[in-house]
């Protein structure tokens, strides 16, 4: 089967730096509205680093339709958020109203419709540890619901 498209989470890739820059720009553009609208959801005892990690995680989940594992890796990456693992874990644990299967489906639609990939290739991309890092359940749901 064909090679898996890198999700930009590999620390050794130049593509990662470019992807992270785009992510950072997207995060900054959406941070004020995201922070304001979600501030009520944040634990008052959370540190500022945890709150920042959560705000970033919300953007990745809502706007970029990333998987839980990909978000964690982006948050902790030296090319990404550079958050400590405990702050990233806090963010993942406190994400609200994220439907991971729907995130997988939105990603799958992009691969299938825009990149013209086969359903088998889409499923591999979604579930690969070098790809989008969705669970097999999430990837299966997505491929089964492609139109």
Short description:
By secondary structure, the chain is mainly alpha-helical.
How would you describe the overall organization of this protein?
The protein has helices at 14-38, 48-63, 68-76, 85-93, 100-114, 119-127, 136-144. The chain is elongated and about 45 Å long. Helix content is 63%, strand content 0%. The protein has 7 helices and no strands. By secondary structure, the chain is mostly helical.
Keywords:
147 residues; mainly alpha
Uncertain runs with pLDDT below 50, 5 residues or more?
A: 6-41
Number of helices: 7
Query: How do the helices and strands follow one another from N- to C-terminus?
Result: HHHHHHH
- Strand segment count: 0
Please state the average pLDDT score. 81
Rg, rounded, reads: 15 Å
Rounded to the nearest angstrom, the distance between the terminal CA atoms is: 23 Å
Helix content: 55-70%
Largest sheet: none
SS-based class: mainly alpha
What percentage of amino acids are in beta strands? under 5%
The outline comes out as elongated
């Amino acid at each position: 089967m064909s090679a898996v498209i890198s999700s930009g989470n590999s620390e050794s890739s130049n593509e990662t730096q470019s992807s992270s820059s785009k992510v950072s720009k997207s995060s900054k553009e959406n941070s004020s509205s995201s922070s304001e609208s979600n501030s009520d959801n944040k634990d008052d005892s959370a540190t500022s680093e945890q709150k920042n990690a959560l705000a970033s995680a919300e953007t990745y989940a809502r706007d970029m339709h990333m998987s839980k594992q990909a978000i964690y890796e982006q948050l902790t990456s030296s090319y990404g958020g550079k958050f400590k693992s405990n702050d990233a874990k806090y963010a993942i644990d406190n994400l609200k109203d994220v439907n991971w299967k729907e995130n997988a489906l939105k990603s799958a639609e992009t691969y299938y419709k825009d990149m013209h990939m086969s359903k088998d290739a889409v499923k591999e991309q979604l579930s690969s540890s070098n790809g989008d890092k969705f669970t097999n359940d999430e990837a299966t749901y997505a491929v089964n619901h492609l139109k």
